[in-house]
Each structure stands twice: as structure tokens, then as C-alpha cells.
Design brief:
This protein is mainly α. The protein contains ten helices and no strands.
Length: 197
């Protein structure tokens, strides 16, 4: 029973940190902590991590779609929707791109915020992210051995590391720049009639 509670706590923590828009520790560090501290099995830990990270990001996607969008100007929303239309109609590019990004040990929060604002197909995004995270979490958890002794230390280390904060801030700056680019004009110019938006 205690074993199941450990996996339940892991699922809850992973889900919650993946619904938060910024300044959370990488999910793989949480998985590594639970894997070592509670002597969990490797494969179930990774599957639970990838599943609940994906579910948390889906929640963030819909938060962005329903609550963050109204704060953008009409022009910014149109710019992002044009970009979303491109990704929705070009899955041969979208899926490998998300898979590659999901393998990196970098935050995906801004990606899901941008995806929600641009109305990217959540099914394609979530499936690709889940598969990518299965691979990346396997790699990072298996290949990493240093972790804080307590869960609160994992969070404290995130706030004490300037690098993590800079990456999050830079991500939001790039997200802001995405809203200011006239993607319809650029993609229409590059693709012509192949871009239907």
C-alpha cells in the first residue's frame, strides 16, 4: 500500500508542477528524487512521470487557450493562430519537432502556452510530447545520480540557480516575440497557396 502511495504522490507532484506556467524544477529531477529516495521501479516511475507531465501540460494548454488569450491584442492572437494553422496542417514537421524538443532537459511550459494561444492540435502535441518524454525521462533518470536529499531541496535548488530562472524568463521573452511576428505574411510568402490560413 505504501508503494502505491509513493507512486500516487509522484503522480500528483508531477501533475501539479506541469500545470504551473513557470519557475518549476525539471520533471526529470522529481522523477529521479522519487526513484532513488523511495526505491521505486525504474519503468513505472518513467511511465507515471511522462503520463502525468503530459496531463499537466494539457491543463496548461487549456488555461492558456481560455484565460491567457484574452490578454493578447487581436493582432497578436491572429499572428499566433496563423502559426498554429501551419503546425496543424504540417504534422510531418510538427511531430518530429515536438519529439526532438521533448527529449531536451528544458522547460516545455512556454511551448504549451504558445500552443494554447495558437490553437495547435492538442492531440498531436500531447501524443508527441508523451512519447518524447518517455524517452527523455528514461535517459535523464537512468543517467543521473545526483539529487537533493529532500523534495523541498529540489524546488529550492531551482530558485537558487540563476540559470533556471534565466531560461524561464528568456522563454517568456521569446513567447512575447512570437506574438509580434506576422506569421501569416511570412508563411504565405514562403508557401504561397500551400498555406491556406
Amino acid at each position: 500500500m505504501e508503494f502505491l502511495l509513493d507512486y500516487g504522490l509522484l503522480a500528483l507532484v508531477v501533475f501539479l508542477i506541469n500545470t504551473v506556467p513557470a519557475f518549476m524544477p525539471p520533471t526529470w529531477t522529481i522523477l529521479l528524487f522519487f526513484y532513488l529516495k523511495f526505491d521505486l521501479s525504474f519503468l513505472p516511475s518513467v511511465v507515471v512521470g511522462a503520463t502525468f507531465a503530459t496531463l499537466g501540460r494539457i491543463v496548461l494548454y487549456f488555461l492558456s487557450l481560455n484565460f491567457f488569450g484574452p490578454f493578447l491584442s487581436k493582432e497578436s492572437r491572429k499572428n499566433l493562430e496563423a502559426l498554429g494553422s501551419y503546425f496543424n496542417t504540417n504534422t510531418r514537421i510538427t511531430v518530429p519537432l515536438i519529439l526532438a524538443y521533448a527529449f531536451l532537459p528544458v522547460p516545455s511550459n512556454q511551448v504549451y502556452i504558445a500552443a494554447g494561444l495558437s490553437k495547435v492540435n492538442i492531440k498531436i502535441l500531447a501524443f508527441s510530447f508523451f512519447v518524447g518524454r518517455l524517452m527523455s525521462y528514461s535517459f535523464w533518470v537512468w543517467g543521473s545520480y545526483k539529487v537533493a536529499d529532500r523534495l523541498e531541496d529540489v524546488f529550492a535548488n531551482q530558485y537558487s540557480r540563476m540559470g533556471g530562472l534565466i531560461v524561464d524568463i528568456a522563454g517568456f521573452f521569446l513567447l512575447y516575440l512570437l506574438t509580434k511576428i506576422n506569421w501569416k505574411k511570412i508563411l504565405k510568402g514562403a508557401l504561397g497557396n500551400n498555406f491556406p490560413y
